[in-house]
Amino acid sequence: MAKAFDEMTALGDGCRSGYELVQAWLAATPAETLRQRQQEAELLFRRIGITFAVYGDAEGEERLIPFDIVPRVLTRPEWQRLSKGLEQRVNALNMFLKDIYGKGEVLKAGVVPEDLVYRNPYFRPEMQGMQLPHDIYVMIAGIDIVRVDADTFYVLEDNARTPSGVSYMLENREVMMRLFPDLCARHRIAPVENYADELLATLKSVAPDSAPGEPTVAVLTPGAFNSAYYEHSFLADKLGVELVEGRDLFVRENIVYMRTTEGPKRLDVIYRRVDDDFIDPLAFRPDSVLGVPGLLSAYRAGNVTLANAVGTGCADDKAVYSYMPEIVRFYTGAEPILSNVPTWRCREPDALKYVLEHLPELVVKEVDGSGGYGMLVGPKADSATIENFRQKLIRDPSKFIAQPTLALSTVPTFVGEGVAPRHVDLRPYVLTGADGVKTVPGGLTRVALKEGSLVVNSSQGGGTKDTWVVDVPITDAAIMQFQQQQQQQSRHRP
């Protein structure tokens, strides 16, 4: 595997544009001070109560997602290029979903194989022929991005169902501003704190036409035992709307109502964090106690909007992902601004043959997998694990895709032995409403804290960082002034 591109120093000892003050800060700040700030950050997160649960964990305990105090920096021009690519991609995702649940032109044209859609476990026939407000299926998208050099960003994954992590993006920024006000003040950092206002405006903009007056919005959660419950409650609080469970809602004459102390109240938009299978026991899994009986009927009648729409999982399947360049061209008539990671579809005989011959070099993923589970990282796997995956591929190749092992970019990260490079990805959040597509500047950076690891997922030992989109250039005078300030502070530290 090639040497990783370092986002602060490139491949040398210099400093890339945008990172000048961060580099000066790290050079002037003793390791013990950084360690103290790291401990303060952990204490703040504990007080706030930001935790997650890992399904299948033997102890079943709530954990903190590790937070790294060294920010990741993107320049404004870099972000503008990324943002345009994200908007193009999410527009294509929405057009693809409208099409496969409508006329199916992309399938008739042979751009995407029919069986890949119609046999997809996330394809919902119940959605065929439905007319959604403004033809929007994915109101909230989380598009996972990786970087391999100064100019090349790849889309690693499209999250079109219930993308998580935005609460950490917001809390990371708040903690950084509290712990390092001088460093933050020296940069012109694009704000993220208006995300809640943008999200609420997006949700209200896609309310059904039948909504009387100002739309009523709620966040639907599976409950306190869900691994992302903190985020559900956090978002409801930030949006200023009710956090509800299935038992708090009922359907009467195809209208959804919320039980309140003042009696039933009509609900127009549901930001749901409950998977399709569990959202309505009358339509999907009859044993579900998390959903609302009759919700799909109200949805089909056009009396409530679900964000994201039912059936969006068909668009973030990893096999469908492999066709996204063709999907973008088909609907937009333009070349994709953001490229996919090169991908072998194991369902194709020639691709399967190549993958089986090169397993130790590749990353192999389940097409419907998530969270870093069910995957093989060939260069990091032992021979027994590789052979186990070989048998899985031979038994059912259609369940897998394979990709080269990319040298993901690294950023400076404070770890036990000090500041060291660690691999990262980026999850920007993209909102689509009646007034168009908006991207939140920065998003959530996930970092693989283990040396050499390429797995950034929190459930697999990863952490998070604040992501700064900054204006450049930073002048030499500003750098010198900041260095002097840091040196003075260091002399006065006990």
What do you see in this structure?
The protein has 494 residues and is of the alpha+beta class. Helices cover 32% and strands 22% of the residues. It has helices at residues 20-28, 31-48, 76-100, 105-108, 114-118, 166-179, 181-185, 195-205, 229-239, 295-300, 318-321, 324-332, 349-357, 383-395, 476-492; strands at 52-53, 62-63, 67-75, 140-147, 153-159, 217-220, 242-244, 249-252, 255-258, 265-266, 269-272, 305-307, 339-340, 344-345, 362-366, 375-377, 400-404, 410-415, 418-427, 429-433, 436-439, 444-448, 462-470. A five-stranded mixed β-sheet has the order 3-23-22-19-18. It has a five-stranded mixed β-sheet with strand order 13-5-4-20-21, with helices on both faces. InterPro entries: ATP-dep_Glu-Cys_Ligase-2 (IPR051680), CP_ATPgrasp_2 (IPR025841), UCP005522 (IPR016450). Residues 71-448 form the Circularly permuted ATP-grasp type domain. This is Circularly permuted type 2 ATP-grasp protein.
